[in-house]
Amino acid sequence: MTEPPTLPARNEPELPLHTPSGASLSAAAFIALIAWLALAAQADITIGRLAVRGYGLLDALERMSSYLTNLTALLCALSFTCVALRPSTPLGRFFRAPTVVTATVVYMVFVGLAYNLLLRHLWTPSGYRSLVNESLHTVLPIFAALYWLLFVPRFHLTIRQSLLWLVYPLTYIAVTMLRGRLSDFYPYPFIDVLELGYERVLINETLLVCAFLGLMAMFLAINHRRPRSRDSSAVQNVRQDAGS
Q1: Which of 4, 53, 67, 92 gives 86 a disulfide partner, CB atoms 3.0 to 4.6 angstroms apart?
Q2: Mean pLDDT per segment of 10 residues, for the chain of length 244 residues?
Q3: What is the CB neighbour count within 10 angstroms for residue 88?
C-alpha cells in the first residue's frame, strides 16, 4: 500500500510539468557534460594514484565513493543527463520536478561551499588536478545554481518532501562512520574519529547538518519570494471559481 499524496495548499497549486524549453535542455546537457568529464578525470587521477600503491580498480572506485563530492557530482550528472536526453520519460519527468531539481542543486551547492570554506586551505593542487578540483567544487555548483535560478519555477514543498531532502546527507554520514570504523579511513579531517574522537566529530556533523538546513532554508526563501507563474494564477482562479 502506498501513502495518499499530500495535497498542496490552496494558495500554492501544484502544476503539471510542461514541455521544457530548448534553453533549459541545452543548459542541462552542458551541466551533465561538465559533471561526467570531471568525474572521469577524477577517476583517472584516483586510479593512477592508488595503482602506484598496489591497489586495483575496485579499490579506486571504493575510495572515490567515500567522498561526498564524487557522489553528489554523480547524482548531478545522472539527473541532468535524464533532464537533457529523456525529458518526457518517467525518469526524466522525475528529475525535472522542481522539488527534485532543487534538492539536487542544494546538495551540489553545499558541496561547493563546504569545500571552499573548510577544505580549500588544506591543499593546493596544480595543473590537471587543479582543473578537475575547480570543476567539481566551483564550476559545477555555480552552473547548477544558475540553472535553478533561470529554469526552475516557483513550487510548493510539503514538510514530508523537505524532510526527504535530509535522507541523502544523513545516510552519507551514517555510512561514512560505519566504513571508517571498519577501515580506519575517514575522507574528511572534520569527521576523522581517529584524530578528533567521537564527541568532537558528532559536534562537527551536527554543525554541518545545521549548515545544510540553513542552505535549504535560503533556497526555499528565494522560491517563496518568486512571483507566481501565469499558469499558477490560472489554476488558482479556476479553483476559486469552482468553489464559488
Answers
A1: 92
A2: 43 54 92 98 94 92 96 98 91 91 97 96 91 97 97 87 93 97 95 96 97 95 79 43 46
A3: 10
Cβ burial, residue 104 (10 Å; 0-12/13-18/19+): buried
Alpha helices in 97-158 (DSSP H): 98-114, 127-134, 140-151
- Residue 178: inside a domain: yes
Residue 162: what pLDDT?
A: 86
Q: Which three cell numbers stand for residue 159?
A: 514538510
Instruction: Tally the domains of the chain.
Output: 1
Closest CA to 81 of 35, 44, 22: 35
User: Which candidate, 186, 217, 179, places its Cα nearest to that of 200?
Assistant: 186
172 is written with which cell numbers? 552519507
| Cβ pair 165, 103 in contact under 8 A | yes
Report, in this order, helix, strand and coil percent for the chain, each rounded to 5: 75, 0, 25
